[in-house]
Amino acid sequence: MSKIFEALRNANAARKANPPAKSPDINSTKKHERRRSLRRPFNEIIRVYGSTSDGKSFYEEARTINVSVHGALFEMKVPVQVGQKLMLINEGNQRQQICKIVKTKVLETEALEIAVEFPVPHAEFWKVFSARPKSRSHENDRHPRMAEAEVTVAV
Questions:
Q1: Is the model's pLDDT at 31 over the cut of 90?
Q2: Alpha-carbon distance 94 to 123, whole Å?
Q3: Beta strands 95-106 and 40-41, pairing class
Q4: How large is the greatest C-alpha to C-alpha distance in the chain, in angstroms?
Q5: 20 to 30 Å CA-CA from 118: which of 9, 37, 54, 147?
Q6: What DSSP state is assigned to residue 124?
C-alpha cells in the first residue's frame, strides 16, 4: 500500500513542477451567437400590438428582417423595452403570437431593431417554414431506403 501512496505523491509533485498547459477559456474568446434554430430572411409587414412604458396601448405595422421558429427580428418606430410582451399578427396566414422582446437596437434611421422570442417554437406563424414531411406509406415501410432514394431509370 505504501508503494501506491508513494506513486501518488510523486505524481502530484511532478504535476506541480510541470503544470499542464491551460486550454483557452471559451468565455474569454470572442463570443459567438448560438441560435436554437435557423433564421430565414423574411421581408413582410406584420402587425404589432403592445403598450408603452406609461401604459398606453399602441399598434404598428412593422417590417420583418428575418424569422425563425423561435422568434423574429423586425423594425418598428414605437419605443419598447427588453422584457416587454408584444402580440404579433401575421396577416399572410391569419396567425397571432405573443412574444417577449429580448433585444433592442437603435438604428441610424431612428427606428428600432427588435428581437423577440416566442414562449414555444411556432413554425406555423411564418409561412416560410414548411410543414413536417409526410409519413411513409406502408409499402415503403418494408424498404425504408427505397422511400429515401429518388432514382430515375432511362430505358
A1: no
A2: 14
A3: unpaired
A4: 81
A5: 54
A6: G
